[in-house]
Structures are given as C-alpha cells and as structure tokens.
Amino acid sequence: MLRYTIKRIIMMIPVLLGVTIILFFIQALTPGNPADVALGQDAAEADKAAWISEHGLDDPIVVQYGKYMYKIITKGDFGTSYTNGKPITGELISHWPTTIKLALMSLLMACIIGILLGILAAMKRNTWIDSIARVFSILGVSMPNFWFAMLLIMLFSLKLKWLPVSGSYGPMYWILPIATLGILNAAGIMRFTRAAMLDNSQQDFVRTARAKGQSERMVIWHHILGNAMIPITTCIGQYLIGALAGAIIIEQIFSLPGLGSLMMTAINQRDYPLLRGSVLLVAVSTSVIFLLIDLSYAAIDPRVKARFKSITKSGKLSKKQVQKN
Amino acid sequence: MREKKNKAGVEEIRRRSMFSEAMARLVRNKTAMFGFFILVTVVLLCLAADIISPGGYDQQDMKSRFVAPGLEHIFGTDHLGRSMLARVLYGGRNSLLIGFAATVLGAAAGIILGTISAYYGNMVDNIIMRILDVFNSIPNLLLAIVISSALGSGKVNTIIAVGISTIPGFARTVRGPILAIMGMDYIEAARTIDAKDSRIMFRHLLPNVLSPIIVQFTLGTAISILCVSSLSFLGMGIQPPEPEWGALLSYGRQYLNYYPYLCTVPGVAIALIVFSMNLFGDGLRDALDPRLKN
Fold first, then answer.
1. Which residues face B77 on adjacent strands?
2. What pLDDT, on the 0 to 100 scale, is given for residue B17?
3. What pLDDT digit, counting tens, does each position of B64-110 carry?
4. B43 falls within a domain
5. What is residue B64's DSSP assignment?
6. Which of residues 240-269 of A touch B (CB under 8 A)?
7. Does pLDDT of A325 surpass 50?
8. What is the model's pTM?
9. Per the record's keyword annotation, is Oxidoreductase included, yes or no (chain A) (predicted)?
C-alpha cells in the first residue's frame, strides 16, 4: 500500500512538470509586453526595459523556465506578482482556504443529499419519487452554476431578504455559495448513486442475503450500498474537482476572496506569474484528489486491498492484474 | 402462398440493421424525443433570428428602455432599448455555433489521438496518454480560461480554447473500446492481407466504436455550450455588444434587483438547451447500448 502510494506520488511529478511547461510556454508566447501591465502604457521606454531585465524576461524562454522551476523546487517561491510586487506564494496561501472551504462544504452537502436521494430513487424505482428525482438530476446537471446562483440570489436575497447578496463577513455569507454548488452537484451524485444501487441490487449476493432472511435495511445499507460505494467514490472525486473549478465562477458572483477571484484578477491584469501559480495549485490538488480516489478504493473494497498487498509482495503487478486495471 | 409470406418475413428482418434498431428504440423513448423536440425548436428559432427580428441585435431605441416583457416586446428591452428577443436569438446563434464547433474540433483531435494511441500501443500510447494526463489534471473550464486568456477573446479563439479542453474526454472515449476490439479476428484478418494502418483505423476500428462517440458528442456539446457561456460570463469569450447567452447573463447581473427579466431569458435559454441535449444524449446512449440501461 505504502509502496503503491509512493509510486503514485512519483508519477505525479512528470504530470505537474508538464503542467508548468504548458502554462509557461502558453503565457510566454502571448503577445503584449508585461512591462505595460506592471508600469502602465505611458511609462518611459527605459523604465520598461529596466523592468524587463530586472524580471529576467529578456532571457531565452528555456532559461526563464529553468530559473522559474529552480526557485519553485529549492525555495517554494512562485515569483512575485507583476502588478503589486507581492510574493505569489503568500497570495496563494491567503486565498486557498476560501476555495477549498467552499469546495469541501458544498461537496459534503452534495454527498448527503445526493446519496440519500439516490438510494431512495433506486429503492422506489419507477414510482413518482423516482420520476421527481430523475427530473431533479437532469435539471441539476443542465443548470449553469452562475445562473442557479443568480436564481438563489433573486429568491433569498432580493425577494425574501433572508440572506446577504455577496461579500464575506460571516457564516451567513457562505450559505448561498455553498448551496449553489451543493445542490447542483447533488444532482450528479444522485444520478450515479441511483445507477450504482440498481446495478448492484440485481447481483447474486443480494439474492443470497435476502434468501438467508437478512433484514431489508441490512440488505440495502450493507450489501447494496457497500458495493455501490466504489463507483460513487469515483463520482464524488470528479465532483470535488468540478467544485474546485465551479468555485472560480461562484466566488466571482458572491465576491468571496478565493483562488477564483485571484485568478480572474490575474487574468484581467495580465499578471501571468500569479495566474500560473494559481493554476498550478489547482493542478496539484486535482492530482492529489485522483490519488485519494484510488487509495480510497482499498479502504472501501477488501478485494482491492488484497490486490495492493500482492503488489507489495511481488513488487509489481502481474500481467493479469494489469489487464484488469 | 406460405412461401411468399416467409420470404417477406425474412426480408423484414434483413431490412432492420443495428442502426435502425437503435433508431427505433430512440423514437420509442418519450423523454429523449421530448429533448429532441426542444433542441430542434430552439435551434430553428435561433437560425430564424433574421426573420423574427429583422432589425438585428444592435438596434437601439432610447424611447423604450427597460420595457418589461409584454405584447410589444416579448422578452422586454435593455438599457439601450434593444429587444431582448433579438439579443437572445442572435446570442443563441453564437452560443450554439461556438459550442458545436468547439466540440467538432475537440472530437476530431481527440478521436485521432485516441485511435492512434490504442492502435500503436506501447511507447506511442504512453506518450499520448501522459500528455493527455497533463491536460486532464486541469479542470475543463479552467483549461479553457487559461488558453482563452492567452489567445484573447473572439469567436475563433473561444472555439479553439473550448475545443482543446474537450480533447482528453474524446481520446479516452475512443481508446478504451478500441483496445477492447484490437484483438478481434477481423482486425487480425485485415492485418494479414496487408491493409494499411490508416485503413484499419478508419475502416475497421472507428466504425465499430461509433456509438460511444455519438453519445459523447451529444453530451459533450452540452458541456461545451456551458463552457462557452461560462467564459463569456467571466468577461472572456464573446465581447459586448455582440450577444451570447453567458455574456447576456453577465450584463443582466447588474440589473438583477430591478429588471430580473434581463437575466431570466438568457438563463432559461442556456438551461433549456443543455437540458434538452442531456435528455437526448441519455436516450441515445440507452438506444445504442441497451445493456447500460437500468
């Protein structure tokens, strides 16, 4: 297990290197002079030239990339912002918690609603409950999150005046953003849960469990849901990644000072080092989430755990196992 | 007499190919047909924008600013007295066209990459899949935002940005099923008679994985449309005064308190089109691969 985890973490390195290469070259090839952004269009040419050489932007692009990576690896330094000169690492650390809080809280809400509704819909299959749940799931998947956020604002902030429109001054300001992402993601998770429950409810072990007289509650929660948790976990991981991306837009609408707001500022001001740092942080998180999904299989499914053990023993996957994967 | 009947019966069976079987299943699926009906209606309305609103999307009328939806202006007017009906219809053209074109671009690139990856295997497969892993580690929308920020706004740039972000999805959709049929006898047979690689890929492999491609294309277009309008909503993508559903929503946001209809119309439009595509796409999947249905 430990060996597998370490191997997976090592495998993340080339992917993240790839991300930095793509980001760096896309932005370095973008037309426009960054000095115009930092000093303003009207600054003297000499000042601009000085600024460019101060930031090492007149070096060949490969050298620039090398220096950039060297600083990240040795000092954890993502450079300084073009616009306000602050270190980017600090900016990321101060904005990251808002985004991760929004993503995790909304995902928690989505899981509770989604899994419960999914179980209910699967158990009451082809009844009106199932129909309503299915309409909810397709509506939720189709609704753009920014439009749903506006609908919630119209209803709860402008009409009923229960909740504040936007800002970040206390718990009340978090309800609408979390609800927006939570309800929409619940729709997707519900759909997956329903499908996974139905898949498993026709399996032999369910018939066996019923035949030996186990209570219906035990059959549903232990036998069916237990086995359905594997596809559901994959789906939850995907939605966590989706929630991170969704947070970018939702933070904009509700004026939350998170990574999304930071990124949009960076884009509008053409502050490339800042944008690069933020996207890299999201890419790292995404890779970590993928890893966590894979590791959680072992926690949920004893069969996978057994396979991990055999990997550790033999050192690598046998051909049969590779085919299975 | 009896013989004739039998003959007719055999012909009847022969005439139904796997494709027409699937189409028959699709037509019987009421929800899918409902989605298809909405989809066609909205697309036709957007195409007929010239006929419905001959004045174009930018015709101002300062005497009738912020007119609420009513008989004269079905969807009301904005702060320059422009008809929201015209702006939503012309905006729909942009949203649908860009979303569709981006998906075509992503599908073409993704299918080719996925097929090559699965066909050659080993090194080629490893390199292509690792590069796609890199793109996969950045969420779709974020990737589109980054590319769009580098390319700048505009229709073509938005198509490229959104299109690139859909490539990994298509490559994966194609790669899996192709790997599964690579060991089949008819591929082996084609190789034995010395068929060219490109011929095996495009004549023997791709037609056999058409179903997942069609489904991915329908559902992918819905996602692309969402992505395009998200970009425009964030102020990238399509720029005012040119209308686009996401851009219209972003514009209407500042009047949310007093003139909510400015947001309602484009918001409902996006939700409706994506909703109909999802219904239709789900129906397609059930029709093309009934084993998946539950």
1. B83
2. 75
3. 777 778 777 777 777 777 888 888 889 899 999 999 999 999 999 99
4. no
5. G
6. 241-242, 244-246, 248-249, 252-253, 263-264, 267-268
7. no
8. 0.86
9. no
Q: A-B interface: how many C-beta pairs under 8 angstroms?
A: 113
Domains of chain A plus CATH, in order, are 13-75 (no CATH), 92-302 (1.10.3720.10)
- pLDDT at position A320 is 46
**Token pair for B223:** 């996602």
Total domains present in chain B: 1
User: What digits encode the pLDDT tens for the residues A51-99?
Assistant: 788 777 777 888 888 888 888 888 878 888 877 778 888 888 988 998 9
B87 located within any domain: no
**Which of B149, B165, B279 is the best mutation test for A, with the most CBs of A within 10 A?**
B149
ipTM of the complex: 0.84
Find the angle CA(A8)-CA(A13)-CA(A15) to the nearest 5 degrees.
Answer: 95
Q: Which domain holds residue B194?
A: 96-294
Judging contacts by C-beta atoms under 8 Å, the chain B residues touching residue A199 are 294
Distances B125 to A195, B90, B105, B183 between C-alpha atoms, Å: 32, 43, 21, 16
DSSP string, B77-126: B-TT--BHHHHHHHHHHHHHHHHHHHHHHHHHHHHHHHHHHHHH-HHHHH
* Residue of higher predicted confidence among A250 and A320: A250
The answer to whether position B32 is within a domain reads no
Tell me the shortest Cα–Cα distance from B14 to chain A, in angstroms: 33
